[in-house]
Amino acid sequence: MTTPSIDVLYDTPRAPNPRRVRLFLAEKRLSLPTEVVTIMDGSHFRPEYRDKVGSFHVPALGLSDGTILTETVAICRYIEALHPEPNLMGTDPLEKAVVEMWGRRVEFQLLLPIAQVLRHGNPAMAVLENPQCPEWAEVNRPRVVAALDWLEGILAQTPYIAGQRFTIADITALVAVEFMRAIRQALPETHTATHDWLTRLRAREGYVE
Amino acid sequence: MTTPSIDVLYDTPRAPNPRRVRLFLAEKRLSLPTEVVTIMDGSHFRPEYRDKVGSFHVPALGLSDGTILTETVAICRYIEALHPEPNLMGTDPLEKAVVEMWGRRVEFQLLLPIAQVLRHGNPAMAVLENPQCPEWAEVNRPRVVAALDWLEGILAQTPYIAGQRFTIADITALVAVEFMRAIRQALPETHTATHDWLTRLRAREGYVE
């Protein structure tokens, strides 16, 4: 039942999942010893990284007992356990489940299609996605547009995605929406609730690149 | 801080995610009032279902306060909070994060490619996946084979996916491996550690269809 401390965060700029962790940390006013990995040259596929981390995933969290955690949400859940305030993943069983539900919906319905358009539609991403499938990028472009409509429908009803307060689900959605730059997809001007939400999120002290 | 009770599980046969919830419940020796939804005729897209559940997702969990939870892992986490024993998602922060990490790896590296081969490669699935992208099914077939090698590598080292004991990560992997029937993908005979793990899982009292 020991709870190891965090030794190091393996991080990389620009990619969406590492930014989710940085935003999560910034909301908690935490800063961790960080090792920056370059992914666009495929460094995370090389033995130097794999020998340390045990997989090619970034972000990763190195703990004092030697465990390396990967998977963004698992990393965030561990950070939340060590640093519970401000709470970002729910305080009681019901809120925890509701936040997880919304977080996953945003991942699957919004972030995943955006990533698919980029990884399969942009030849420069061949280092990360092999083989690429341009037809799959094409299928996902209208799914991104539909997901933006879906998001607008949610934010027209509640100030934050999982309800009345800011949670990890907003972090995931923020990262997804801002990552649309990479696929040259704009947020329609008519999506006023989403624009308002974005303005509020960008004004937060925890807003970081 | 109230914790609503569970009124009803919306379930459907054959699909992998609902089966994950059934296995999770069976391991805890729980049985819930259940409403069975047909998905192969698109019933879950009709207003009768959407008006009740608020989305087209199956499985879903109806709670006594009117909340409807969707997303398999969120549903399981709520069940775990109400019925903690036997524990399937980790007992302390480290184990919880490790189990979540493995659960997500299995989802993304194994279950997702299998589902993509089926949903985009089988014309009968057009009711669930529109538009279909046959090229994407083709890309995912070798990813399934690679994921089986990866799984064998894990199970050659530990008795269960997240370590020394059975967890929700094993449930997800079991459902994925058995769902390969739908894409006519066999588990290679040479994958002896995976076959041994499968035999142990099928002998469990909590093994259900």
TrEMBL record, chains A, B:
<dbReference type="InterPro" id="IPR036249">
    <property type="entry name" value="Thioredoxin-like_sf"/>
</dbReference>
<keyword id="KW-0808">Transferase</keyword>
<dbReference type="GO" id="GO:0016740">
    <property type="term" value="F:transferase activity"/>
</dbReference>
<dbReference type="Pfam" id="PF13410">
    <property type="entry name" value="GST_C_2"/>
</dbReference>
<dbReference type="InterPro" id="IPR010987">
    <property type="entry name" value="Glutathione-S-Trfase_C-like"/>
</dbReference>
<feature type="domain" description="GST N-terminal">
    <location>
        <begin position="5"/>
        <end position="87"/>
    </location>
</feature>
<dbReference type="InterPro" id="IPR004045">
    <property type="entry name" value="Glutathione_S-Trfase_N"/>
</dbReference>
<protein>
    <submittedName>
        <fullName>Glutathione S-transferase</fullName>
    </submittedName>
</protein>
<feature type="domain" description="GST C-terminal">
    <location>
        <begin position="92"/>
        <end position="209"/>
    </location>
</feature>
<dbReference type="InterPro" id="IPR036282">
    <property type="entry name" value="Glutathione-S-Trfase_C_sf"/>
</dbReference>
<dbReference type="InterPro" id="IPR034345">
    <property type="entry name" value="Gtt2-like_N"/>
</dbReference>
<dbReference type="InterPro" id="IPR040079">
    <property type="entry name" value="Glutathione_S-Trfase"/>
</dbReference>
<dbReference type="Pfam" id="PF13417">
    <property type="entry name" value="GST_N_3"/>
</dbReference>
